[in-house]
């Protein structure tokens, strides 16, 4: 009898200890887990895009070089980063020797003119005397030949003078187009050779995106298509396809698409950026990207049933745009999706609905 009393007391104590636990569990199932906002997926018309990445490079690069040789640089009037205009003087070369050669050549021209005048006078007399027979035919021929030789000599000296004047013009090296200077090798006091590169500039400051895309998309890409570029000027930039590259890399299986940037966007050359080329508009079922819960490498959303229970549903996502994401599979347009607070939910949690998006 005493033993039965001990067992009964033990059972009563155990029940008393378990009672708060059962009450807590019951309360947990009864209490809402979280107050959430709901929205239904929307049907959008979104462009289908091709992902691309690549470098920003000059639209065209111009090389400014010396056209003469043996002259010393006396002044450098531009530097890296200078914005220049067509015809603007960038470098001056020493003119002393060239001016001396011009004076010497001008004297040679005057001498040639005097020789021509003398030869022309002798030829005129020979023509007059030839009619009277007072001079031999050989002498007439020699004087006429001297006249032609003197005339040719004058033309040669005048051409040499023109060449020296061109060389004088070449001592002033100017920009061949508007643009931005990106490199400079001109150094004060250096003696240049013909063809020596002095500057390099980006023509008209135009930079383009040389975007690499997979070759399988080339049939969909054409000139004039819109292109979204990320990471420029702290915002997305819209460009246009200027040219589709004619060849495909045998190593990567990718082709280059040349994308023109807006005129007011002048980013630095050499940046590596990403973006996408829009080539087709198709329907898309979308939801706010805050609704996506990423767990264990899988995308989920929480859908609320009529009994206010949150049910976890696996979804496949597609395009993203403007804070929304395309849902390829998993839910339909009638689903009530948790757009805020899903990260704190578990499957089958009871929720309180704060608001429902239309």
**Coarse morphology:** rod-shaped
Number of helices: 3
Question: Which percent range fits the helix content?
Answer: 25-40%
**N-to-C series of helices and strands:** HEEEEEEHHEEEEEEEEEEEEEEEE
SSE-based structural type:
alpha+beta
Provide the domain count. 4
Radius of gyration: 43 Å
List keywords for this structure.
358 residues, alpha+beta, conserved putative lor/sdh protein from methanococcus maripaludis s2 fold, Elongation Factor Tu (Ef-tu), domain 3, OB fold (Dihydrolipoamide Acetyltransferase, E2P), six-stranded mixed β-sheet, 3 helices, 28% helix, rod-shaped
Task: Please describe what this structure looks like.
The structure is a single chain. This protein is an alpha+beta fold. The protein folds into four domains: 90 residues, conserved putative lor/sdh protein from methanococcus maripaludis s2 fold (Beta Barrel); 86 residues, Elongation Factor Tu (Ef-tu), domain 3 (Beta Barrel); 64 residues, OB fold (Dihydrolipoamide Acetyltransferase, E2P) (Beta Barrel); 74 residues, Helix Hairpins (Orthogonal Bundle), CATH 1.10.287.470. Helix content is 28%, strand content 42%. It is built from three helices and 22 strands. The chain has a six-stranded mixed beta sheet with strand order 16-17-18-22-1-21, with no helix packed on it. Strand 12 and strand 13 form a beta hairpin. The longest helix has 37 residues. It is rod-shaped and about 135 Å long.
């Amino acid at each position: 009898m005493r033993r039965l009393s001990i067992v009964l007391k033990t059972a009563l104590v155990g029940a008393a200890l378990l009672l708060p636990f059962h009450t807590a569990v019951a309360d947990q199932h009864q209490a809402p887990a979280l107050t959430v906002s709901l929205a239904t997926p929307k049907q959008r018309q979104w462009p289908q895009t091709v992902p691309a990445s690549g470098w920003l490079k000059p639209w065209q690069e111009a090389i400014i070089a010396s056209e003469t040789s043996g002259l010393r640089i006396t002044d450098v009037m531009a530097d890296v980063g200078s914005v220049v205009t067509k015809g603007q003087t960038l470098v001056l070369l020493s003119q002393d020797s060239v001016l001396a050669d011009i004076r010497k050549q001008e004297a040679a021209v005057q001498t040639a003119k005097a020789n021509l005048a003398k030869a022309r006078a002798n030829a005129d007399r020979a023509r007059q005397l030839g009619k009277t027979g007072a001079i031999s035919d050989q002498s007439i021929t020699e004087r006429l030949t001297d006249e032609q030789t003197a005339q040719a000599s004058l033309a040669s000296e005048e051409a040499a003078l023109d060449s020296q004047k061109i060389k004088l013009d070449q001592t002033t090296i100017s920009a061949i187009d508007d643009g931005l200077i990106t490199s400079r090798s001109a150094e004060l006091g250096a003696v240049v050779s013909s063809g020596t590169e002095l500057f390099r500039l980006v023509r008209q400051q135009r930079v383009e995106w040389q975007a690499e895309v997979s070759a399988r998309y080339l049939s969909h890409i054409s000139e004039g298509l819109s292109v979204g570029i990320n990471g420029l000027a702290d915002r997305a930039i819209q460009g246009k396809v200027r040219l589709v590259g004619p060849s495909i890399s045998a190593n990567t299986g990718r082709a280059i698409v040349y994308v023109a940037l807006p005129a007011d966007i002048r980013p630095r050359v050499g940046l590596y950026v990403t973006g996408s080329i829009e080539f087709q508009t198709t329907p898309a079922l979308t939801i706010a990207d805050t609704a996506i819960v990423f767990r264990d490498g899988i995308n989920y959303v929480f859908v609320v049933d009529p009994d206010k229970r949150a049910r976890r549903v696996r979804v496949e996502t597609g395009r993203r745009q403007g804070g929304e994401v395309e849902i390829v599979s998993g839910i339909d347009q009638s689903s009530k999706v948790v757009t805020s607070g899903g990260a704190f939910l578990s499957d089958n949690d009871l929720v309180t609905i704060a608001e429902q998006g239309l």
